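Run log, item B.
One chain of 230 residues. Sequence copied directly from the ordering sheet:
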Amino acid sequence: MFYDPLYLCLMAPAFLLMLLAQWYVSSAYRRWSRVPLSTQMTGAEVAEYLARRAGLQVRIVPVQGFLSDHYDPRTRTLRLSQKNYYGRSVAAAAVSAHELGHALQHATEYKPLALRSALVPVVNIGSYLGWVFLMLGLVLRWANLIWLGVGIFSLGVIFTLITLPVEFNASARAKQLLRQTGIVRTAEEVKGVNQVLNAAALTYVASFVNAAVQLLYYVLLASSLGRRRS
């Protein structure tokens, strides 16, 4: 597969897009993590303030890792990487408000978030089974087995597609909340929040493109193998 010219031609642009997205988000985050927030609030304080205004009951805790921030709807816990939890930068405020946006989605029963959460266990299992069936189908040259793997693998593509509106909506909520509450006050701070969150959104777009292109390759492979056997 990795020596197939078709695979390389399809995946090379998707891989480059993924690298570009990772570079862009890291660059934007590092730039704006050096710009202090005029209100001098930490990321944790931003999240706590926004949660209190919205009447949300959420735990806000620090975690290890670089940009490992996430909201866990099962325990209503907002986990912020230490640099964002303790940081008083524009980037820390942007990321914290984004994760609080997910908590708001959960509280308001935002349908794409509920659908994504429901797919998590299916996708976790399917990600392993899909690859198993795909690899077995390739080794045995059995198109039907590849098609089964394609069907299971497509669940992961659907998951990445559903993730897009979830993440875009959380960022839109974050931008609005930060402006409405006066946590970001200057044009420079608004610009920084937009750059950080837009860069993060690009990584999800790149993930979807990567998954969709892989799925396209397997569909073409299964179709080609099926024609040879017919």
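Observations after the first pass:
- The beta strands are 59-63, 70-72, 77-81.
- The chain is about 75% helix and 5% strand.
Flagged for discussion on Thursday.
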